[in-house]
Every structure is written in structure tokens, then in C-alpha cells.
Amino acid sequence: MKAIRVQHTGGPEVMELTELAAPRPKPNEAVVKVSAAGVNSIDGQFRDGSLRTPLPFIPGQEGAGVVTEVGAQAKTVKIGDRVAWSGVLGSYAEYVVSPEEHLVPVPAAVTDEHAAAAMMHGLTAHYLVNDAHKLKAGETALVHAAAGGVGLLLVQMACAIGARVIGTASSEEKAKLAREAGADEVIIFTRQDFESEVKRLTGGKGVDVVYDGVGKATFEKNLNVMRLRGMLVLYGMSSGPVPPVDPAKLSEKGSLYMARTTLAHFTATREELLARTGALFAMIADGKLKLRIAKTYPLAEAPQAHRDMEARKIAGKMLLVP
Amino acid sequence: MKAIQVRQPGGLEAMELVDLPVPEPKANEAVVKLAASGVNFIDVYQREGRYKVPLPFVLGQEGAGAVTAVGADVKGLKAGDRVAYASILGSYAEYAAVPADKLVPVPSGVTDQQAAGAMLQGMTAHYLSHDAFPLQRGETALVHAAAGGVGLLLVQMAHNIGARVIATVSTGEKAKLAREAGADDVILYSQSDFEAETKRFMGGKGVDVVYDSVGKTTFEKGLNILRPRGMMVLFGGSSGAVPPFDLITLSTKGSLYVTRPTLAAYTATREELMARSGAVFGMLAAGKLKLRIEHTYPLAEVQRAHRELEARKTTGKLLLIP
Question: In chain B, where do the E strands start and end?
Fold first, then answer.
């Protein structure tokens, strides 16, 4: 099968299109023919070595497709099932093998492309507003990278809950997308200081919660824009990891709460995974959650997809199609 | 009037018994003739200079007594009213001038010594178990220094809520007190590794919350015994301040929450102060909370009080009587 392989970590060019043997399933696994694979910033972190995994590897953690082979002990999937997954390395390929518990059913009303586009970002947005900090109507949330993959979904979900959403974005174009998704205000952080703007927009009080997938570039100022006892949910580090934090800062800045979360802990059981994907696909099928698929690339153009992602030019989801 | 003053931060000798004029109330203050003052670990940090205070200052931030004078703008208070307060410097003295909005009434079912003994540590135990991490029936909390001032009150409150309490203490005598207060399991950290012991008690599962006033020597291990999405509530540093830590450890250890609260943030409005002190006094008056007043010292023997507190010999509350 065709697959993208990384033999040593580095820039986008280390992702090479190669011909590999198609995988075979272990007893509790299934093989899926990939219709579409999602591109995520975590893929860049594995590719450049900031996150470690044994070499060589096939990147990509997310996708959707059809089951073509099942292991002898697989109970929850059969050949022909339409499934989607996140957290299964190897998606930038024509076929991927996965433990059956990571494969979730895709309803007829949701296309493969939408399912692939929604898994990681949608499940992330879902756990952020429902569990990491359970957002309530009337609260104010600051959403960084509001026009990004998670951002656009997070803004929609937060608005549906009845929260006031302040977003940040790097350009007017992206701000427009965030506003269309429902953000009440969007700060173009390349032109304005988000700290003083948030203070102004909240009458000096600060927001109830900050949802941040940016990390290093926004951390210090995030501590300054929350109300007393507010919550910072750090769910990613697209600008790099946050340097070590002195806990005393949390108390100085207002007895703040902080969580550093990953999707795995919010989809730790099959029950929880199915509940979240069920809710997510229902929102998509009902038209309540709009996915923006910004661009689709052939598998061979994976390096370009990463270049575009890292240049931050793309607003919305990028897919690779084998 | 007699008072204990610090002119330069330092050891026990930094506390000097001096003669100062009885304070006059500012327009928004009242003067309280102190019947008793509470001794708290924060007094040690301020005396040492670990927490900075403009010099010279009268030490102590907790007291109870009767109002003797009120400032021009004060309403609702008159001479003779029984009051208590916390978080206002100057209580190691015969009289203290306190902003009226920080004075709370002491009900007749509560003595001056109980009021002075319960304000700071009682409200701390209350906010920890009811707000910082609101404990639910059936949850498990780990409480460090469980036989200390806050510890004994926190164990009682957690027990009353119906939570399971794992307590850590340094001696057999303290273990007995912690059990009497309602701890379900007690670990002598001087003999056993609390991390291993907790994992054993919990059958490998994590606790829901760690209430940690010890800090440096316990923080990291505390993160290891939390369940996924559990919370570390770091509210003190008796073994030293927790050094800056890498946020990624929070995500790898289970998408954990950390908060470093202060009492001030949980008594920020008059309403909240009245509600919290009212709840604590109510529990005392009803016998639901027992305050262990370990020892009372004359004001002039404050050095002995601090020496014994720092030597970890004491349990429960220490009071100074002017």
C-alpha cells in the first residue's frame, strides 16, 4: 500500500511517500481502508521529534474509512462497517490497523470526510466545554486560535451553551470565520494586545475560563486575564511547550485553577468514547455543528500540508486523501 | 499596649515584645480588645520573611474579642459586640484596629477562644472542602498534616460530607487524633512511603483530591496518586515552596488539575466572609466540628509557641492570650 513514512525526525520533507505491505490485524484488531486522514498539529510534533515515538513510523492519528479485515477475536466491528478513529498512529496511509476499541461507528448521515475531520478536534472541543471546564450559560470564555481546527468547533459549542465567547486570531480573515462561528468578539492579536483587550471587554473583571491550545506564546498573559478563581485549560502547545510553572504564580494571579489535558483521558473507556462521538456526530448530522474543511491534499502532498499548517495560513481542517 | 513586633525578619528572636499606643480606629475601622489570637503557620512565613511584609509590623492575623471603639463611617457595630476576624495583620497584641467589613459576629454558642481558634483554619478547611474542590459523598481525599490546625478540621469536614479520608501524619499520637477526627486510613509518612501506601489502600486507583499544605516534599508524589482528572489543591508549603514544575507532567499523569488557593480569594466579598464564618461557627456550636486547642500561651511566650509549632510537636490550634 502507499503510505507516508518518517525515518528520522525533522521538517515536513522527512515525510516520504513509500510503498509498504498492508497491515494485518491481530486477534482484537481490525484493518480499515482509509477514506480520509485528518492532519493535526500533534502530527507535526511527532514528525519534528518534540513528541517521541519509535522510528520509523507512519504519521497521522485520525481518519475515517471502511473495515476490510477483522481479527479473530474482534467483536464490535465487522467487514464493511463505516468507522472513524482518533489516537491511532498510522493514518497517513491507504490502510491502517487499529485495536477494535478505538474504532467508532459513523452514522449514515455523516460523510467519511466529515467524520475524519471531526474526530480529534471535535472530541477535543466536546470534552473541553463539557468536562475539562463545564461551561455554563452566561460565563465568558476566551478561546485562542478561534479560527483553528479546534477553535471553530469550540466557538460553536460554547455559543450553543449560551456562553459569551471572546476569540483570538491572527488576521481579519480568520476573525471573520470566528465571528461566523458565533464568537461575540474577536481580538486580532497581531494588531492588539489580547491582555488589555480582554480586560477592556470584561470591564476589568477577567474571563471565567481560558481554553488554550497555543501554549508558550500566550501563557503569561493568560494568567492576567482570568477572574478570581478562574480556570485555565491548556490542551495543546502549537507555539511550543510552556516553561516550568511556579505554583505561587497561580495564587498571586487570583487563586487560579489550571489543567493540562489530553484527549486520551477524556475518552478513556469505550463508553466515554462512544458517548462523545455519538454526541459529536449527532450535532454534525443535525447541522448544529459546521465543519470547515479548508483543503484536501493527496497523500503524496503530506509535506505541503504540514508546511501550510505550520505557516498558519489555513483556517479550518486539512485532510489527506489516499 | 503590649504587642509582638517584627522589625527585621528572622528566627524566633525577630519577635519582640514592645509597648505600643492603643490604636485609634480609622473611619472604616473598629478597635477590638483581643481575648485571644490565633497562631498560624503563615505567621512563621511572615516572621521569616518568606512572605514579605512592610517593616516593622505587628505579627498575627487572627483574633477574637470585643469591640471597644468604632470609626466614624462604621455602621452596625458598637462597643461590646463580640467579633472575630482573620487575614488582618496585628493580632499578637492587646488591641487591634480592623476594617469593619472584616469583622464577623461571634454567636453565643461559641467562646472567644473557639472563635479565635477557628477563623483562619476553620474557614480554610471550609473553602478547601466546599469550594476549591467541593468534596462529594463517596469521594476520597488525601489530607497531609492531618493532625495540624487545618488538618484536623478538614478531616472532620470531609468525614461529615461522607468522603473517605486518607490522612498523613508524622507520629503515632497524631495518627490517633486523625482517626478520632474521622480519617479512614492513616499513613505515618515518617515510616512509610505515602505514595505506595495510598496506592495499596486504593487498590491501585487514584484519589479524587489531594489537599496539600506541606508542599515541597509531597507535591510530586501527590500527583502520582491522583485519579485521572483529579485535583491537587496546594494550599501551603510547610516543608518549603514547591519549585516550578513542567506542565506536561499534569497531562501525562492524568490530565490533572492544580490550584494554589488563598483564603483571601475565598472570602473576597463580605457575603462570602459572612457565609463561611457563619458555617464554621454553626458547625462548632452544633458540636459537628471539634476544635482542639492544644495550648494557650501568654503573649510574652510567643517565641515558645513558634518554636513548638515549627518543631512539628504540636497538634490542633495554638492560641496567644494577651
Answer: 2-6, 15-19, 29-39, 57-58, 62-70, 82-86, 95-99, 104-105, 140-143, 164-169, 185-188, 207-212, 226-234, 257-259, 293-298, 317-321
Asked if B256 and B270 sit in the same domain, the reply is no
Q: What is the pTM of this model?
A: 0.93
Range of the domain at B9: 2-120+266-321
Does the beta-carbon distance from B247 to A255 stay under 8 Å? Answer: no
Which amino acid appears at position B245 of this protein? F
d(Cα A148, Cα A106) in Å, to the nearest integer?
A: 24
* Assigned C-alpha cell, A137: 450559560
Q: What is the spatial distance between Cα B42 and Cα B245, in angstroms, rounded to a whole number?
A: 23
Strand order in the sheet with B2-6: B15-19, B2-6, B57-58
Dist. CA B60–CA B45, nearest whole Å: 11
What CATH class has A2-119+269-321?
Answer: alpha beta
The type of residue at A86 is S
Helix pair angle (B302-310, B41-48), 10° resolution: 100
CA B287, chain centre distance (Å): 20
Q: Are residues B10 and B115 in the same domain?
A: yes
**Is B67 a domain residue?**
yes
Residue A228 to residues A207, B157, B240, B260: CA-CA distances in angstroms?
Answer: 9, 24, 25, 12
- Closest approach of chain A CAs to the CA of B263, in angstroms? 9
CATH superfamily of A137-260: NAD(P)-binding Rossmann-like Domain (3.40.50.720)
Question: Which residue's entry shows cell 489530607?
Answer: B143
Find chain B residues with C-beta within 8 A of A209's C-beta.
none
Residue contact B261–A255, C-beta within 8 A: yes
B250 touches chain A (CB under 8 A): yes
Give me the residue label for grid cell 509557641: B305
Shortest CA distance to B119 belongs to which of B64, B158, B82, B68? B64
Is B72 an interface residue toward A (CB < 8 Å)?
no
CB pairs under 8 A between A and B: 83
Nearest one of B89, B85, B26 to B57, comparing CA atoms: B89
Q: Measured between alpha carbons, how far is A172 from A196 in angstroms, rounded to an integer?
A: 19
For each of chain B's 322 residues, which pLDDT tens digit applies? 999 999 999 999 999 999 999 999 999 999 999 999 999 988 999 999 999 999 999 999 999 999 999 999 999 999 999 999 999 999 999 999 999 999 999 999 999 999 999 999 999 999 999 999 999 999 999 999 999 889 999 999 999 999 999 999 999 999 999 999 999 999 999 899 999 999 999 999 999 999 999 999 999 999 999 999 999 999 998 888 999 999 999 999 999 999 999 999 999 999 999 999 999 999 999 999 999 998 999 999 999 999 999 988 888 899 999 9
Neighbour count for residue B172 (Cβ, 10 Å): 11
A183 φ/ψ angles, rounded to the nearest 5 degrees: -60, 135
In contact, A105 and A74? CB cutoff 8 Å = no
Count of residues for chain B? Answer: 322
